Amino acid sequence: MTFSKEQEQIDKFRNDEIAQHYFEVLRTLISKKSIFAQNIGLADVAGYLGEIFANVGAEVTIDETYTAPFVIAKFKSPRENAKTIIFYQHYDTVPADNDQPWTDDPFKLTVRKGYMYGRGVDDDKGHITARLTAVRKYVREVGELPVNIIFMMEGAEESASTDLDKYLEKYREDLLPADLLVWEQGNKNTEDQLEITGGNKGIITFDLSVESAEVDIHSKYGAVIESASWYLLNAISSMRDGSGRILIDGIYDQVQEPNERELDLVERYAIENTDDLRRLYGLKLPVLTKDRRDFLKRYFFEPALSIEGLSTGYEGQGVKTILPAQAIAKMEMRLVPGLTPAYVLEKIKEHLKKAGFDRIKVTYTLGEESYRSDMSAPAILNLIQQAEKFYEKGISVLPTSAGTGPMHMIYEALGVPMAAFGLGNPNSRDHGGDENVSLADYYTHIELIKELIASYE
């Protein structure tokens, strides 16, 4: 099997009329801010996407019932009993504010040394245009589609997919039946292998807060008066031990253990390890586990309790000898199948009360359930077979990622096999400054999607 080299892919991209046309569409998409968290540009971008798809013959629906419009674009095959592939995408992005270093304007698509840069080139606008390019190339070069193609695009993914469940309930019958749902995005790993994943962890985020007095108190009373800061720190410490194990009753009882195929996939394909994490992040504290099997099991299949941020007391210049009257911590727990946000929240409240920290106020902020697949569905096995044709270093098939997204919500609504893969690289810097995608990876993804369509002939 002969694989194309990077420069060959770049040359093909630059000489491809259809790819260049939709690259200009991507340029416009990047220039249009669409940020749910700031309520910016959602209707504008949804409308623009509707125009782009309608102009090439898709049957387009734009539903503006909720804050972020829901866009469905259908390409119908003339074949009787044709199967259906759904592309789940999102057109919203995270902000690109002054807290992040960007070489150029983040909302202007730029190209440097074989890479494109801009907010959303990987997460997730670049995937929309690449996949649409593949559909258009197939029709231009081959003819009628052998499979129905549906682009399902939401505008609140970066804010826990607000209202997506309502849209899915409303349009469920319009989307089904389907053979495969291709997830929004994905990337190659550090071994230059394409990762194909079948799930993600869930999450619950919550605030823990306490008020110990009406005002801050002089610290001369520290021997006899409890401060909000110590009270909160002790409460947090009661929830996890030094090895990272969660000490909240009932959490591990509900965890759905991985099956043998899921364990085998992780053992075979996962490349994450403690040494690489030390080098990547410059770790200065001890890791929680060194054993590879234990590391992989925890990383992919177990929940994790983390502190996102702490705020209490005086943090200005010099000193201020006080006992803080208020303290707050932003917390999260990554969830695995078997754990729901509602269940975990209740167990956290029960634990704090039982441990004597009944003064702690627990405030829920957001939550998503987790989903995991053993990647054995025929449509996913077919996808794996097609992907192997395009990546010289091979592919990495994993039953889940450690990140979070609305996979569980979509699977509960549609029940369709799902697989995540895409055009990103290990340093695409999603959510960070200089978000980027290789031009070669972009074009390879186009070719893979086109081949996936052809596999239904």
From TrEMBL:
<dbReference type="InterPro" id="IPR011650">
    <property type="entry name" value="Peptidase_M20_dimer"/>
</dbReference>
<dbReference type="GO" id="GO:0009014">
    <property type="term" value="F:succinyl-diaminopimelate desuccinylase activity"/>
</dbReference>
<keyword id="KW-0645">Protease</keyword>
<protein>
    <submittedName>
        <fullName>Succinyl-diaminopimelate desuccinylase</fullName>
        <ecNumber>3.5.1.18</ecNumber>
    </submittedName>
</protein>
<dbReference type="InterPro" id="IPR002933">
    <property type="entry name" value="Peptidase_M20"/>
</dbReference>
<dbReference type="Pfam" id="PF01546">
    <property type="entry name" value="Peptidase_M20"/>
</dbReference>
<keyword id="KW-0378">Hydrolase</keyword>
<feature type="domain" description="Peptidase M20 dimerisation">
    <location>
        <begin position="199"/>
        <end position="355"/>
    </location>
</feature>
<dbReference type="Pfam" id="PF07687">
    <property type="entry name" value="M20_dimer"/>
</dbReference>
<keyword id="KW-0479">Metal-binding</keyword>
<dbReference type="InterPro" id="IPR051458">
    <property type="entry name" value="Cyt/Met_Dipeptidase"/>
</dbReference>
